[in-house]
Amino acid sequence: MDMLLNMPTPYMVLAACVVVSATLILGRLLANALPGKQPPILEGIPYIGGLLKFVKGPMSIMTEGYNQLGEVFTVPVAHKRITFLVGPEVAPHFFKATDDEMSQDEVYNFNVPTFGPGVIFDVERKIRTEQIKFFSEALKKERVMKYAPQFVAEAEDYISTWGNEGIVDLKEEFTKLITLTSARTLLGREVREQMFNSVSELLHDLDEGMMPISVMFPYMPHPLHWKRDRARKKLHEIFGAVIRARRASGVKEEDLLQNFIDAKYQKVNGGRALTETEISGLLIATLFAGQHTSSITTTWTGLRMYDNREVLEQVLDEQRRVIATHGTALTYEALQDMDVLHRSITEALRLNPPLILLLRYARTPFSVTTSGGKQFNIPKGDIVAASPNFSHLLPSVFENPTKFQPDRFAAAGEEDKTKPFGFIGFGGGRHACIGSNFAYLQIKSVWSVFLRNFDFELVDAFPEPDYESMVIGPKPCRVKFTRRKLI
Questions:
Q1: Beta strands in 140-244 (DSSP E)
Q2: Cα–Cα distance measured from residue 106 to residue 386, given in angstroms and rounded to the nearest whole number
Q3: pLDDT attached to residue 358
Q4: Which of 110, 320, 381, 392 could staple 218 via S-S, CB 3.0–4.6 A?
Q5: Which residues contact 99 (CB under 8 A, 6 or more apart)?
Q6: Burial degree of 464 (CB within 10 A; 0-12, 13-18, 19+)
Q7: Is the pLDDT of residue 412 over 70?
């Protein structure tokens, strides 16, 4: 004891730190290993193991956690806990719970510096509910029908610059084309015709500012965050000028912008019209919600079809039948008569969902029961994650889950109906994607134009998903195109 008391102060401090650290680490290891009603812990190195696993990406975490611990497990990441629910058996509460039970606010507020103030995750729930209704109004059938000719016109104009043959990367091409179709139907004619290039560059800057680290630290000092903030400010200026000109002219257009200009709050904000800042933020939010996911799904649909000639022939036969029935014009009615192409899009979305994680914040504790009958209690305060990418590939959910088989969604089979929330490519429950009909029409329009004018052949091996991206597209893959007429 005397020897310890006579130690120099720095050594005593160091010894105390070692003892405290060892105690904390031992306590953490014991706590993680203790059986209980809460989900098992996947961490590894105490305190930092979860963060190190998170850096490797969600797919790596889910693979390790599911193989070791099963359908429910928790990963401590920095000062937060993320509980993963893998598969439809443990998913119902995630999708069915009210916003008072499972909230989006706390997990998606990293979008605020991208969308801007006063919209979606920067407002209280009753205001956001009305803002989402403005989207819903613009995506009703009678409005979406009017977008079909614009989708087709943009696609036909786009391919007019292509030669008789060449090599392209479909992801790059569809990123450009879907941005064009989105600009026309969402941002408005003025943006599409007069300022598309500058707006596209600014949207690219916004996109670059959405990094994986931004999810945890959206305001962290970083060159790409500063660039993001400048781009958002400039976009608000551009959209504001368009909004003022529209309101002054009294001219009405068939696009989402017009819907926002005409909209008025019903039960909040005194029934006023939307401000320029709100409209600009909602337009940006719309593009981020739909443009990336649509361009990625369009790409995967093509890659999957041209990697499976049997399915491709069915799709081409359907195009011939539709032409014989409806003529060559790609009308809304003709596009709605393309069930094989529709199922191919759904199957591509099953195999390669763009969003790897759907997130909620547990405002109240809840319980889940696994397929094996184990029950776990998820505490209040956990971030809760479900993954379309991982769940869609479980053999307990889909037969031959890695095979591209669109007929699994045909009326005779409908594998997605065998288990509630088996297919969550568009989310599900209370927060299912309201833009799914818009997305299907957009993708079917674009691919119908391409199928009728080109044949494609993969030059490279079928690409792996790029799990390092925020939106999971394919890694680079070149395809050869050859111009030809289907009929």
A1: 165-169
A2: 16
A3: 94
A4: 110
A5: 125, 430
A6: exposed
A7: no
